[in-house]
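Can anyone check this?
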Amino acid sequence: MNLGWADRTPEWSATRLFTNPRYTHMKAAFERDELPWGDVCTRCVFLRPNEPFYNGLAKKRLEKVHVEPSLACALRCPGCTRIYQIKERKGPVFLPLDVYRRMLTSLRDEGYAVDLLYFCGQGEPLSHPHLEDLIASSREFFPKTPLAINTNGNYRFADVF
């Protein structure tokens, strides 16, 4: 279930994203102790059915911002849905730096606290050609926020580091 995209349009903002109809529907359902999209929710890796509903957005606190910098991956795992994600999503395989900076600017300027920036996704985050710039931007806008990278480990570590 896609709850929204960060993009380049002038009217885009984190607050508008978090108040769009999908988020409003999701918040209302969780407040009623219901799943907003039934079976779709039961398959979500982020669903925590045994934890009480907590709305950090009401306090402008984000526990974790998942950033998907890349849909590229050298592996061809049989159960991976990456190939379907690439076909479904319109846009670049790599997160554009200006879109990421726009998201960070909006979060900071609109007063959101971010506890963790988490680079992960259907692709290999380390394959992004400007990963260092994404990390530097993270440090610029949220200097005290920890960063984590979920990687499959198939990277040219010896060449780069």
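Reply from J.R.: I decoded it. Residues 73 and 123 are 5 Å apart (CA to CA).
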